Amino acid sequence: MIADRRPEVVFNCAAYNAVDRAEKEPALARAINAEGPGHVAAACRRHGATLVHFSTNFVFDGADDKPYLEADEPSPISAYGRSKLEGERRVLETGAHVLLVRTAAVFGGPHSFPQRILDRARSGEKLRVVSDQHVNPTYAKDLAAAAVELVEDGMAGIVHAVAEGCTGWDDFARAALKELGVSTPVESVGSAAYASAARRPFNGCLATTRYRPLRPWREALHQWASGLK
């Protein structure tokens, strides 16, 4: 398709992101998150296209006490994170013109975190949400606009593009419900309360030295919620 259509830019948004299931399906996660992007990058190199490839905060182990920068050394702790890191390395090794955008906790779609919290609250389910994992909740519309701007500016290599501010998933859940006028309480619990197959980084926060923070996550969440009212 790339040979036929000769695009100037290819945005690769495809990924296997079932974090827990990847522990049982590492080969499938690797095929989608590493081998596939490598093939796309090679095709982009052959036909002179720029590749924009999206990656994740899960390439880091989350052990540091500060947000991770582009120059920090990745050290994934899950099959999903390892597959995404291998994907990064494969696309960068092809020699294609690659913009590799790492981001975190993307929301905005019908199955993203705040929508799931809203659905659970409306169904009367008790809400217990982890408080010891921190992220930059990043609005998909803001991320898309940032990716286009970075391409137009000719940026290449690794760039972190996330919302300004880090928060726990529990506070993210409370903020989403408050925006929508839902009074369901959220109980804060530790990660140990959930028996999950995959380990997750406690500090999933990213920062950047190559771009700028996207708008504060609460502002973006307000816009998202306004679209549901």
- Give the termini distance in whole angstroms: 40 Å
Quickly name the level 1 CATH class: Alpha Beta
Mean pLDDT: 96
Would you identify the CATH H-level superfamily? NAD(P)-binding Rossmann-like Domain
Give the class from helix and strand content and strand pairing. Answer: alpha/beta
* The number of domains: 1
The biggest sheet, with number of strands, parallel, antiparallel or mixed sense and barrel status, is: 4 strands, parallel
Question: And the CATH topology?
Answer: Rossmann fold
Going across the major beta sheet, what is the strand order? 1-2-3-8
Strand and helix order: HEHEHEEHEEEHEEEHEEH
3D structure, described in words:
- With 229 residues, the protein is α/β, with parallel strands linked by helices.
- It has a single domain, classed as Rossmann fold (3-Layer(aba) Sandwich), CATH 3.40.50.720.
- 37% of the residues lie in helices and 19% in strands.
- It has a 4-stranded parallel sheet with strand order 1-2-3-8, with helices on both faces. Strands 4-7 form a two-stranded parallel ribbon. A two-stranded parallel ribbon has the order 5-11.
- Strand 2, helix 3 and strand 3 form a beta-alpha-beta unit.
- Helix 2 (26-47) packs parallel to helix 3 (79-93) and helix 4 crosses helix 6 (169-179).
- It is globular.
- The mean pLDDT is 96.
